[in-house]
Specification:
It contains 21 helices and 13 strands. The chain is of the alpha/beta class. Among the domains are: 86 residues, 2-Layer Sandwich (Gyrase A, domain 2), CATH 3.30.1360.70; 77 residues, no CATH class. The chain binds arginine.
């Protein structure tokens, strides 16, 4: 079988049947095998519908031709053509048992490695220096980390880069403020947001301070040593705050992944000069602009991407163009992914358009803005603290761990010494899962009640299923014997096995659409199938040692699938809950 994936295996057979009967070439994916929720049907093949028109036949004819040539007697019962031309397939029990058993020895649980690995640069997290991370950065961090894990697992080379906002005009006032107040003895700024706001307030109220700040920007850009040292102090201090958040969240980003805006500063001149040489720029209102094709405002006026301001300074767009050039030309990446909130969608579309016009973005590359919606409060408005302030990431994560207590089962099996670790796994897992389980493009409402619910589409539900699956062999007092095999006599066992075999498909669709929620949905279904199995199929009091063996095996697989699936999302799966 094609590494554990039942849908693709059946797709392969349908493809072969199509070639033999109608001389049509398709890939196993194009056979459109989908799990079916009809009673007694495991998979439905929809390819006849999509091919009929092209072949000038009616879909039932196509379906009949496929079924006539299908070599699948070992794997499926007699195929059945339903409705306009769906082919319903029911897996043979022995075949399903064999496939399930084969998963046991496979540490990848059937998930294939891609044939052609790509080198992928992924921009995620990317908070701003001298400001605390807000919930938008939290989303970018969680989604970016999950995508990094998924893409690596399927075999790609993934290079994360944290596009820190560490450069630009605000640093003039921040540095001047730092000069005024000095740093604490331990070189820390305890409250970065307050620091920023104080600087801002002084800038607006005190013309002398504003002048000094502007001069500071000039010194900073001119590379003045003393100014750079102060700037570095601010950057390092912020980076420490970010690093703390990453550690709490279990995010792999390190200082080595920092490619802040300042990193690209020395490349800006050459980048914009290249665009000028290519004849892509125009001077408009004193600023150097590119007007990429296809971007207009409501009145039909062309939209500019300002690449050099009238005063000669560079801004956000110029930096992103230099970033693009650096990762494609210097680092030779194939794909560029940007996990940034949806409000920046137009910015990225324009960057990509300019990069394409400049020949930096070719058909060999993929550049994707992986946008996401906002986190809302229970009132449906922007997520805020009860007092109406911005939610601080540090406080939110601390609360998550505290709140996790309510998701603990009444009779907890956790060793008191492990309690803090488990609370952390539940609390942080809940925050991540709530984020990942929603279609990322949509907004979602942040509610502790919902994200820590013991039953429902939550991480703790999956974590609980995993812990329970692991507890079974402890309760039975033995592990499966060496001669154990999989027996799928009960509907709940069959349904569970079928789910366990669908991890590869879930991972594939999560990767394909940069859509972690496809994987969470699968984990939820798996945990649900396990829970039915747990209720309906006794293990301790199984009717025979063979049946007990089989159920021990299935439980073991459940915990492997859930643990791996959660880990691909950056969520821990404690042994006991
Ligand atoms: N620092 C920016 C912000 O907070 C996000 C940067 C995203 N990445 C990029 N290459 N522009 O909005």
């Amino acid at each position: 079988m094609l590494r554990g994936d039942v849908g693709l295996e059946l797709g392969q057979r349908v493809a072969t049947a199509l070639r033999a009967s109608l001389g049509v070439e398709i890939t196993p994916e194009e056979a459109l095998l989908r799990p079916s929720n009809r009673d007694g049907v495991d998979y439905q093949c929809n390819v006849a519908m999509s091919l009929a028109k092209k072949l000038g036949k009616n879909p039932r004819e196509v379906a009949t031709a496929i079924v006539g040539a299908l070599d699948s007697a070992d794997a499926v019962e007699e195929p059945e053509i339903a409705g306009p031309g769906f082919i319903n397939l029911t897996l043979r029990r022995e075949w399903l048992e064999e496939q399930t058993f084969a998963l046991l020895g496979d540490e990848r649980l059937g998930v294939p490695v891609v044939e052609r690995a790509r080198r992928i640069a992924i921009d995620y997290s990317s908070p701003n220096v001298a400001k605390e991370m807000h919930v938008g950065h939290l989303r970018s961090t969680i989604i970016g980390d999950a995508l990094t894990r998924l893409l690596r697992f399927v075999g790609h080379e993934v290079i994360p880069h944290n596009h820190l906002g560490d450069w630009g005009t605000p640093f003039g006032m921040l540095i001047e403020h730092l000069v005024d107040v000095g740093v604490n003895a331990d070189h820390t700024i305890s409250d970065l947001n307050a620091f920023y706001q104080e600087a801002r307030k002084k800038f607006d109220a005190d013309p002398d301070f504003a002048t000094r700040s502007r001069q500071r920007v000039v010194s900073l850009q001119g590379g003045d040593e003393a100014t750079l040292a102060l700037w570095r102090e601010l950057v390092d201090e912020s980076a420490r705050h970010f690093q703390q958040a990453y550690a709490t969240l279990g995010i792999g980003l390190t200082a080595e992944d920092n490619y802040g805006e300042s990193f690209y500063n020395p490349m800006l001149d050459a980048t914009i000069e290249e665009l000028e040489r290519l004849g892509l720029t125009e001077v408009s209102d004193g600023a150097v602009c590119v007007f990429p094709e296809g971007f207009t405002n409501r009145d039909g006026d062309r939209l500019p991407l300002i690449v050099r301001k009238g005063d000669g300074g560079y801004g956000y767009p110029a930096t992103d163009l230099a970033t693009f050039l650096y990762w494609t030309r210097e680092r030779k990446v194939d794909d560029l992914l940007y996990v940034v909130g949806t409000p920046q969608s137009q910015h990225f579309q324009m960057i990509f358009a300019v990069a394409r016009a400049a020949g930096w973005l070719t058909d060999a590359h993929t550049a994707v803005h992986i946008g996401f919606g906002s986190i809302l409060g229970e009132d449906g408005k922007m997520f805020r603290t009860r007092a109406g302030g911005t939610v601080r990431l540090g406080e939110l994560l601390t609360e998550a761990v505290e709140q996790s207590a309510r998701a603990m089962p009444e009779k907890s099996e956790v060793d008191p010494a492990d309690q803090p670790k488990v609370a952390h796994a539940i609390g942080i897992g809940a925050v991540k899962y709530a984020d990942l389980s929603n279609d990322r493009e949509k907004d979602y409402v942040f509610t502790w009640d919902k994200m820590l619910a013991k039953t429902g589409d939550t991480s703790v539900y999956a974590q609980y299923a995993n812990a329970r699956a692991r507890s079974i062999s402890r309760k039975v007092g033995r592990t499966p014997s060496p001669s154990a095999r999989v027996i799928l006599g009960e509907p709940a066992e069959r349904a569970l096995a079928l789910k366990l075999l669908q991890l590869p498909a879930a991972v594939a669709s999560a990767v394909e659409g940069y859509a972690p929620h496809k994987l969470t949905a699968y984990l939820f279904e798996t945990a649900t199938a396990f829970s039915t199995f747990y209720n309906e199929c006794p293990v301790k009091d199984a009717a025979s040692p063979e049946l007990q063996d089989s159920r021990l095996l299935l439980s073991e697989l459940v915990s492997q699938v859930l643990t791996l699936g959660l880990s691909l999302l950056g969520i821990e799966a404690p042994d006991r809950l």
